[in-house]
Design brief:
CATH class: Mainly Alpha
CATH topology: ADP-ribosylglycohydrolase fold
Order of helices and strands: HHHHHHHHHHHHHHEEH
Helix content: 55-70%
Largest sheet: 2 strands, antiparallel
Bound molecules: magnesium ion
Distance between the termini: 19 Å
Structural class: mainly alpha
Length: 312
């Protein structure tokens, strides 16, 4: 296995592992150092199960495999089918938009109507599912940027959402191509380059730049896209392994599964699949499409990453 292949696979498996590890901690308060969770536990779903973060990413991944470059109509169709399958976990904003689209409201109008209810709302729903594009477009930065924007706008058109998704995928892109020997340097350079390429609002840029200097108690880890990016960047920049980064981020509680998925993809691209703990790789699983009996295990995520990476 090449180093690049290990990193590409690390993104897919890392995101699913982070989602599953965070699943039982979602909506819970942060956990103190002495009571930190580091194993897959039962929660609303059985131990090791991934949630909507990974399900929506799988919808995006399968859409890319069916139609490349990304066909927004195909992706919308898959999101609506997923919405109709009554997922256990679904974001409030995503649910509201998909309900309108399912009722026949045109996509841009559906997004506009939901956004108008809370103009400043900028959730992490399009960030959490964006990673399949980073794998598929690991050699095509301009297509990566265009498709990342499109996938976000379907449900989350706020600039912080499109920018947050783009920042995330560009960080993954630069990590995949890093030739730095130290993970610290690789991460620092990838984040710097990505920040330079995205027109983040001033507040968002401050959040990103200060993330590694934060203390756990400062991190709210809410469903706001800026908080998720902040938590994920804090976790990977203040630790030295995939395991340590993921344990740190999910124990922030609150939107633990989404922060876990985002940090998992970044740490997966940084360290590679081979550095994801075996016990987590063996435990992660889930059903997609929901209620079809089709189960996903580590090997399926590896195959998915290989197929996405071969698209170019
Ligand atoms: Mg979730």
């Amino acid at each position: 296995m090449t180093d690049l292949q290990d990193r590409l696979r690390g993104i897919a498996v890392g995101a699913a592992v982070g989602d599953a590890l965070g699943m039982p901690l979602e909506f819970h308060p942060p956990r103190a150092e002495y009571e930190r969770v580091s194993e897959m536990l039962d929660g609303p779903l059985p131990a090791g199960c991934f949630t909507d973060d990974t399900e929506m990413a799988l919808a995006l991944a399968e859409s890319l495999l069916a139609a490349s470059p990304l066909d927004a109509h195909d992706l919308i169709g898959r999101f609506v089918i997923w919405y109709r399958s009554h997922p256990e976990d679904i974001g409030i904003h995503t649910s509201a938009v998909l309900a309108k689209i399912d009722a026949g409201v045109p996509v841009t109008e559906a997004v506009r109507q939901v956004q108008a209810l809370e103009p400043d709302s900028a959730g992490n729903g399009s960030l959490m599912r964006a990673w399949p594009i980073a794998i598929a477009r690991h050699n095509n930065e301009s297509l990566l940027a265009a498709e990342t924007h499109i996938q976000s706008e379907i449900t989350h058109a706020h600039p912080d959402c499109t920018n947050g998704s783009l920042l995330f995928n560009l960080i993954l892109y630069h990590l995949l191509h890093s030739s730095e020997h130290s993970t610290d340097a690789a991460l620092r350079l990838a984040i710097t380059r990505a920040v330079d390429q995205v027109s983040l609002g001033e507040d968002f840029a401050v959040v990103v730049n200060l993330a590694p200097l934060r203390q756990a108690v400062d991190l709210k880890n809410s469903g706001w896209v800026c908080h998720t990016i902040e938590s994920a960047l804090w976790a990977v920049q203040t630790t030295r392994s995939f395991e340590e980064a993921l344990v740190r981020v999910v124990n922030l509680g609150n939107d633990a599964d989404t922060a876990g998925a985002v940090a998992g993809a970044i740490a997966g691209a940084l360290y590679g699949l081979s550095h994801i703990p075996q016990r987590w790789r063996q435990a992660v699983h889930g059903e997609y499409p929901i209620r079809t009996g089709k189960l996903w295990f580590e090997q399926d995520f590896i195959q998915l990453a290989d197929r996405l990476a071969a698209l170019e």
